[in-house]
Amino acid sequence: MNDVQAEVRWAWVPIPLIKLFWRRLRRMKARFASIMARFHAGTLPAPGSARRDPAPDRPAEAPSQPDAPAPPAAPPPLELPRYPGWVVRTICGTNLRQFELEEILEDPETPAHVANLPQLGGMLRAMCRMLGVKKPAWLRLPRRPRRPRPSRRRVIPPAPDWAVNAPGAILKPDGTVWQRWGASTLWRPGSPGTLEEAQKFDRPRRIWPQD
C-alpha cells in the first residue's frame, strides 16, 4: 500500500487505477486481519463451510412504459489487470516485494502455517499472481477433474444397395464402405506376384458416405 501511495507522486499511473489498486489491497489487508482474529478467537470456520445467504426475491417488474431515447453509451468501467505480475509491471516500487514474498514462501514454517490455516493459502496464491512469483508445489491447488465432453461421434446412415453390392466392397464396422480401384482389382491367378503384394500399392478408398 505504501508503494502504491508513493506512485501518486510520480503521476505515471492514472489516479482511477491507483484507487482500484488501493481498494484491492485494503480489502486483502482487512481479510487477513479478520482471518487471524477469528483464528485466535477459535471462531474461524473450516474452509468451504461458509454458505452465502440466498439471493432476495426480485421485485415484480413495473408495467412497460413507452420507449424513451437511449442515453449515450458510457465508457467501459476501469478494471484491474489479471495477467501474472500485474502489480509489479504497473507499480515500480513493488519489485522488492517479490523478494520478500519469496523469502516467506521459502521459510520452512510457512507450509505448516498454511496447513493449519488453509485460508491463508488463498491469499498467498493471490499475492503470487499479483507479484509474478512462482507458487511452490505445496501451495498449488490440485487440478479439477475435467468434465466429460459430449460424444461427437458421427452417425453414419445405412449404406445403399449400390455401395454394399459394389464389386469388392469392404464393409467396415463403423458403417463405412470401401473399395479398391487400382491394379489389384485386375489380379487373377497366374498373374505376376501375389494378391497381397498387389494390394499394398492399391489402397482402398471410401465410397460411403460420400463427403
Question: Can you walk through the features of this model?
Answer:
This protein has 211 residues and is mainly alpha-helical. The chain has two domains: 2-45 and 80-139, no CATH class; 161-208, no CATH class. Helix content is 39%, strand content 4%. The chain is built from eight helices and three strands, in the order αααααααββαβ. The chain has helices at residues 2-10, 15-41, 86-90, 95-106, 110-116, 119-131, 161-164, 195-200, and strands spanning 170-171, 177-179, 205-208. A three-stranded antiparallel beta sheet has the order 1-2-3, with no helix packed on it. α1 (2-10) runs antiparallel to α2. The longest helix has 27 residues, at 15-41. It is elongated, with a radius of gyration of 34 Å. The mean pLDDT is 81.
